[in-house]
Amino acid sequence: MRHTIETIGRVVSPYTQKFGIARQPGLVSAAEVSIILDPCFNEDAVRGLENFGYIWLHFIFHGVLDEGWSPLVRPPRLGGKRKMGVFATRSPHRPNHLGLSLLKLEGIDCADGVKIRCSGADLLDGTPVVDIKPYIPFVEAKPDAAAGFAGEAPPLLDVVWQYDGTWLSDGLKRLISQSVAQDPRPAYQDIPERIYVMEIAGLAVKFRIEGRTAVILSAEAV
């Protein structure tokens, strides 16, 4: 018997375009999001969730639904040159376009609907949510497990602010710096003179990358 999966809510995220989103959860701790549950869910649906430190978020990669999928993909961690089976990667280009993120739970507000606040997100604004589960460390933490080609965190870029950005809050600066430090460029691209533009938190951030250093050139309201 076939069953249709219904969404239960949406994500409000500072990432408003795919370019610049952290490629894994937890890499950008300053990336804070809110999960807004649909009105049919009230505080009963999240009772007890506040006692957990992290949650598993099941979602749909809605930004690539029209791009289809392939049995072989080129993971950025491998320089975009080697192909791996889609089920050996976390590529968004999957047969069912389902994603899974482990997010730090920051709080739950139920005053006007249910809003779950999390950090360390790798989610596009408007992401449809299909399920939420608590993270249980004694069952799910396997620090000695084999990790294939992703055995360690990717190296970070050094970030230098050429733009003074005095009007930006410390939180916004952290979000921009941590996001750019992940090196959002396609793995095959290394053009020192190119200026990149990343839309984040309502800002168009311009930067260039020279070697292992990213230079922030400007951050203006979109």
UniProtKB/TrEMBL annotation:
<dbReference type="InterPro" id="IPR040372">
    <property type="entry name" value="YaeB-like"/>
</dbReference>
<keyword id="KW-0808">Transferase</keyword>
<comment type="similarity">
    <text>Belongs to the tRNA methyltransferase O family.</text>
</comment>
<dbReference type="InterPro" id="IPR023370">
    <property type="entry name" value="TrmO-like_N"/>
</dbReference>
<protein>
    <submittedName>
        <fullName>Putative methyltransferase, YaeB/AF_0241 family</fullName>
    </submittedName>
</protein>
<dbReference type="InterPro" id="IPR023368">
    <property type="entry name" value="UPF0066_cons_site"/>
</dbReference>
<dbReference type="InterPro" id="IPR041369">
    <property type="entry name" value="TrmO_C"/>
</dbReference>
<dbReference type="Pfam" id="PF01980">
    <property type="entry name" value="TrmO_N"/>
</dbReference>
<dbReference type="GO" id="GO:0032259">
    <property type="term" value="P:methylation"/>
</dbReference>
<keyword id="KW-0489">Methyltransferase</keyword>
<dbReference type="InterPro" id="IPR036414">
    <property type="entry name" value="YaeB_N_sf"/>
</dbReference>
<feature type="domain" description="TsaA-like">
    <location>
        <begin position="5"/>
        <end position="144"/>
    </location>
</feature>
<dbReference type="GO" id="GO:0008168">
    <property type="term" value="F:methyltransferase activity"/>
</dbReference>
<keyword id="KW-0949">S-adenosyl-L-methionine</keyword>
<dbReference type="Pfam" id="PF18389">
    <property type="entry name" value="TrmO_C"/>
</dbReference>
<dbReference type="InterPro" id="IPR036413">
    <property type="entry name" value="YaeB-like_sf"/>
</dbReference>
